[in-house]
Structures are given as C-alpha cells and as structure tokens.
C-alpha cells in the first residue's frame, strides 16, 4: 500500500514528500554529490514522507544518497539511508528515521483513523496495524465500510498474531487501498460488487427486538368573549408494543368541551410482515387495502403484499409544495394517515407515497415548526406514474366497523384481489368484494406508456340487493409531462344510477349524504414554469349528480421567487349550482383571491398578505423566526374589513429535547384565546425508559452515545437528543430502506470523540433497533518535561511506550503533547547517546471534558 498511489499488492512503497522536507533532504545531501546522481537523489527523496502531518513540522529527515554509478537510478522500493550524525545535529532521534526508512506508515497497534470509501467518509473506526504498518481487514472495518464479507477461504492470521483478518484485496482484486498516515486516513476505492449496497438483501435487514411505547398529543384551549369563558381539552393517545416484528397498536381519543366529556376508542390491531413471502398480515380494527376498491374499515383479518419489499415502480403519487420552515408533512387517503415525513425549509417533492387505492384523493397537511398549518388536496388524476398496484395477492374478511351514527346494520364482508405484472410497464388487478346484500367485481390496468406518460383504467360492477339496484362505474386517468416545464393531467369518473360503493349501502337512504352521489366527475390540471415569468398552475373540476346539478371549480395560482422576496397569488372560483353537502362538508359559491409577499431576513421571514372572499377583505402581516432546532416563534396582526376589527396573535414552539410543545395567544375585539399543546412519545425497553419529542412509529430505534447527555443526533425523522443516561429514541425508520443516524460533533464535549460518527441500517418492519456509538474520551495532555537536573528534554527525542512503540517526539522547551494519555501507562524518552529515561508525569486529579487539553509537569528519571 502506498501513500497517494493505490497499489494492489502487499508491498509498502513511499510516494510524496512535503516541500519543506524536500529542501532539507537536498541541503543534507548537496555536499559531495555527483551531478549524475541528482536524478536518483531527487527520485529517492520524492519517495519519502513523514509518518503524520504533525511530525513534518518537527522532523526534517536528511537522507544521504549512496554512491551511484553512471546513470543507474535507484528503484522505487529501495530503502533510503540516513546520516545519523547529521540527524543528531538537527535534533532528530535516529531511531525514528530507521522506522520511517522504507515508507511512511501507521504506528503498530490499534488506532482511530478516518475511513473513506469511494470518496465518501464512513467516519472514524478502530483500525489495527501490525509491526510493519500493514492494515488488518477485520470484520469491524468491513462492516463500517459497508463492504461484503469475503468467504472463509480468504481468512488469514494477522502479523500481530491476535486479530483474524481477511485478504480483502485478493477477494476483490479491483480494490485500491491507500494509507495516508499524514492525514490519519484510510482511503478505499472498491467495485460495486464489493459493496453491500442499498438494495434489499434477504439477510441484510434487522429484525426482532422488544419494546413498549405510548404516544400522546394533548391540546387545551381557553376562549373568552366578554363575560363568557369556554375551556376545551383534546387528548389523543396511542399505546402498544413491538415484539419479534409483531406490531400491536391501539389509539384512543378523549375530548372535554365545557361540562361535556367524551371518550372514543378509534382502533386496535396487530400486524406482522413475513419478508420471505413479502406479505403483511393484519388483524383487528383495520382498513381493507385494495388497488381496485376503496378501502373499507372492518374488524377482521387481512393479508396483502408488503409494498416496501416490492421491486415494482413506486406509487407515482407526487406531493409537492413549499415549506416556510422545517415542517412535518402528513398525507391522508380516505381519512387514513398513510405517510408522514419531515421536510426542510423551501420547496419539497414527496414520492413513494404508499396509496390505499387509486381512486381517492390525497389530503395533505403541512405543519410548520412555528405551529401554523395548512392543508391542500392532491387529486387522484395528478398521480403521474400509474404503476400503483403491487404484484401479489390480498384477502380480507371481517365485519364492517361503525364510524357514524346514521349507518345501517353492519354486514360481514370478504374481499380478494390479485395483481399480476404484465410487463415492465404495466400491471393488471382483478378483485371481488361481497357481503350478504352487496357484491362487486372490478379490474384495473396501470401502465407507464412512456417515461413521462402514464395512464390508468378501472372498471367495476355492483349489485346492491337490498335496494334492488345494479350498476357500473369506470374511471380513467392520464398524466403527461410534455416538456421539462409543462405537465398536464386529466381524469374522468362515470357511473350509472344503480352503482353503489360498499360505503353507499351502509348509510340510511334518507341520509343527506346520499344526495351527493355523482353521475360523473371530471378533472384537468396544467402546470407550467418559466425562469422569468414564474410558475403557473391551474386545476379545473366538474361534478354532476343525477338530478342534473353540477359544481364547477377552478383554482389557479402563480408564484415567483425574486432576489429579495417571493410573491404568490391564488384564485379560487366556484361556478354552477347552489351549495351542496358532501359528508358534512359545505361548498360555497363565494370566489376568493389571495396575494402574499414573503421576504426572508436570515432565519426570519416577514410576509404581508391580502385576501378577499365574498365581501370580506382581510389584510395582515406576520413575522416568524427559527431561532434554532429547539425554538421558533411567530407573531401576526390582521385587519378584518367586515367586522371592522384588528386581531393580533403570537405563538412559539419549543422542543425541550424530550417533548414538543406549542403555546399561542390571540386577541381581537372583545375576545381572546389561549392555547397550549404538548406531544411526544415514551418507549420502555430493556435498558430503561426513554422519551421522544416526536410520536414513535411502527419501526424505530434506540441510540446510546456512551453516557453522554445532550448529544444531538440527526435521524430520518428530525433531530433528537440523548437523555441523562446517554440514550435517545429514533422515532421512525423507513422499513427495508437505508436509514442514516448521525451524531452532530459540535454537540460533543471537546475532549470526547467517537469511533464512528454515523451508522446506517436497513430496518425490517416492526423491528426495534439498538444502535451504539462508542465514545472515546481522549485525554489530551500538554506535558512540560525536564530531566533530573531540571533542564528541558532535548528537542526531537522520541517518546516510546512500554513496548518501544513510537508515540511522539519532544518539541521545543521539553514540551510533549500526548493525544491519549493514560496515567497507568509507562512512557520513556530516547535520549542522545543511546540513553533513555522514564517519564514521571503529575496528572491533574480532576478531568474536565470541556477543555481541549490539560497541562501537566513531568520529570524524566
């Protein structure tokens, strides 16, 4: 192995030399040199380098070229010779020169060095070197580098006789290994077949683990209007446990409004993924998952394909928007939370959304770190890639759950669906669902006609025997990206008057909700962007019922980011019939216009806005500031023209490491409102109880960073901090995908280091993962060493351990810098004249983790 020159052999060669050392070599060898030896001398000098960068400023090795004949040039692997007297004259221990004679190398034993694989740092590791400076490819190094472990035939005994190592270069001949002692670095370049990679392997994901958890979200509000006061409290909790990859959860809701209290149990279920079969099994209060039919809530049993293990194309649903700060994005379909993630400030685009079906729109909520939230709809017609269905079989049976008071007698139903992959661009789904008084059968095709064009076609027929009606439904959609700046989407849904979904048959016939049955629904959308003009978006939808009434809705938006501000404008218009009801939702014919100007000022953001809906005009201004990861706030003032009143509000959000809290206050006219919210999670595990500032999901982890508290870690779900026991919860890990957990070095005490600053893993769904970051409390000591007569030790003398391994050298005025001092270790100094003495260091009694190094006197006897 060589410095800066990758070799695939075990021979150690020297390469480059720092310029200052080159000058020393040339001066030392200038006297008595012959002109014809200059090239040989120059080449030989260029093959030498110091063992570490810090030694360069101390050691000026002076090689003396041997006699050469004619134009014979020394080979690259020739050893350099040194004039010991000249080295002594320059204050350099000749023993150090002998150690570095052949090549720059690491000192023997275990060392903490940086590992770089294919140009990407893999953090610090414990690397083992033998007496010759050769690297040991042990399992720890191979694991940290995310390399494949060679077969046992490549297992060899290391030269130190203690460690078992692999001949990795022989196993993967394309491997290039470069040792860089001057940078405390190992540089590896390997082929892709030597990497474990991010693709799922049957043995590569974690599994198992036991832990119990509780998530909570509690909000309280107090409102005053004149002499009237109203208090309300809402609390949502989720409790459960993970054991042997089984996920058990139960969610409850408690509400108190004035003197009225209510407790609702929402659902309870158990779930497990069987990776070999790529199947998920669920039991309890669940939702039917089908690519053909809309999901129905049942109490029963279900098995279905595990979407995270599928190699087919992703769902194709694209959720995009702009976050004014670090925000949480929640995506719901049919009222079910199907996706949640955190996004940084700015524009975001989310893919890989695990859809329940292809016919239901997505409700998206963006929760800003300042507490403000907004919601928008993603129509099913905008799903750009139609490859939604996962190949495989699914089956569900159970009793329909009652979710509202106006439902009829709930039936027992069964559903079965099969999906086949026709080719790389299309899948076919066929399914049936039946109950005692309702049956339906349907099929669908999802296809990617081109890289930028997708289409979907679905058809279904139903028989509602209780109503004695039969009908059919067809849904078609297509999406295309015409250019890099222009994309369009269209969809159409048509059904006969006798067609019924399962949900339609469960509602009383005199329910107002039945009046919302539509004969046809049509949508069209277009998105266009221009560097100068900005981005334009328009979406049109039309819904027509069987009575001939129609609702037409047009939404348009424009946005432009300029040098100092971002300007957005939105227009919404409703055309057609009068207000209608759809499951309790009211739609108004009032048109709306909204104009917003946002100006970023460092971490702050100032915005002004004006909006008009109907006859009401609102104008306002707001300022938000993200102070740090744990604190942000927002203040605003608004004027309402209709009420002729001014409203002011303020709220701030804080994450005190182990919970998330929001507080707000608003006042206007004769009323005021105070609110508070706290949320988070609690995990009970084998090492104790650990709190999380975020809700804990179905796959999670627990991190230990020694016994250090307050250490910040970056996780897929946002930053977390270790508690007093040095533990933290990773609240969410993406199942069967690569997850990265990283320690933020600035949060560590100054004298503390890590063997590896980050870890990555592929977590199996339902697993409880334990990650350990080994802490290195390096005791750095600046020693002022004198001899028995009180004189400073000679500069350049070598400092050795009890095994005569070189550690460092004596600097000016007898100063010795120990990077990892051990009071129990015996150190000695090699003095001129082949003499030696033993250091007696008087270490401070108390350690301070927050200082970079300590100072200590020493006497060398």
TrEMBL record:
Location in the cell reads: Cell outer membrane
The molecular function terms in GO held by this entry are: fimbrial usher porin activity
Keyword Manganese annotated: no
Q: Which UniProt keywords apply?
A: Cell outer membrane, Membrane, Signal, Transmembrane, Transmembrane beta strand, Transport
GO CC aspect terms: cell outer membrane
Limits of the PapC N-terminal domain:
82-218
Pfam families, alphabetically? PapC_C (PF13953), PapC_N (PF13954), Usher (PF00577)
GO biological process annotations for this chain's record?
pilus assembly
SUPFAM superfamilies membership = FimD N-terminal domain-like
All copies of domain PapC-like C-terminal, residue ranges: 784-844
Q: Membrane topology per the record?
A: Multi-pass membrane protein
UniProt lists the family membership as follows: Belongs to the fimbrial export usher family.
Q: Which PANTHER family match?
A: FIMBRIAL USHER PROTEIN, OUTER MEMBRANE USHER PROTEIN
Q: Spell out the protein name for this chain.
A: F1 capsule-anchoring protein
Q: Which organism is it from?
A: Achromobacter kerstersii
As recorded in Swiss-Prot or TrEMBL, the protein's gene is named caf1A_2
